[in-house]
Specification:
Blueprint (H helix, E strand, L loop, with lengths): L12 E2 L10 E3 L9 E9 L7 E7 L5 E9 L12 E4 L3 H12 L7 E4 L5 E4 L7 E5 L2 E5 L12 E2 L7 E6 L4 E6 L8 E3 L6
Parallel strand pairs: 11-13
Antiparallel strand pairs: 1-6, 2-5, 3-4, 3-6, 4-5, 7-8, 9-10, 12-13, 12-14
Amino acid sequence: MTRKQFSGGAVATKLNGSITAATTNVVALDASTYPFGTLPFVVAIDRGGAAEEKLLVTRLSGSNTFTVVSRGFDSTTAIAHSDLAVIEHVLDADTITEANTFVNTPTTIGDMLYANTATTVTRLPIGANGQVLTVAGGVPTWAVVTVPGLASLSDVTISAVSNGQVLAWNSSLSKWQNTTMSAKSPATRLFLAQSYR
């Protein structure tokens, strides 16, 4: 995919001198309303006739010269054009195809698109409940991520958790254990499996 720029107010202009099929600097009489900068845009010379050619070009600010990135662009052929041939800023099939791809590739609520090469995008279907977006092999993917919890700590023993239990220090085992809270429970405890709002 090549990002392009556009100008809704570009006014048709004309060639300032004839060009050959190999010309790479195309001079217009007035290009002041055309896009400028490093991103390319598309112009057509002799649009609508047998001699129509599209060119992918760039233009420096304040310049009437189009620097050619590609002649015979968008399935046209590079040919010679005469002095004062009409130049117009146009939309190309490539841009429309890219937009169409972005709009129509997702098929399900939650789908996402990502660049799988420098020039194409692909659909990443929505993941399952509990999955998180991560990266594997350089591309995004959905996966279940295991986060180490209290049970993985060497001085914690958790089993058969139920609502209202606490973690209490068992001095005879030198471990934290889940237990049901009572008036006789040790004072050193952490609340477990309880939600406060």
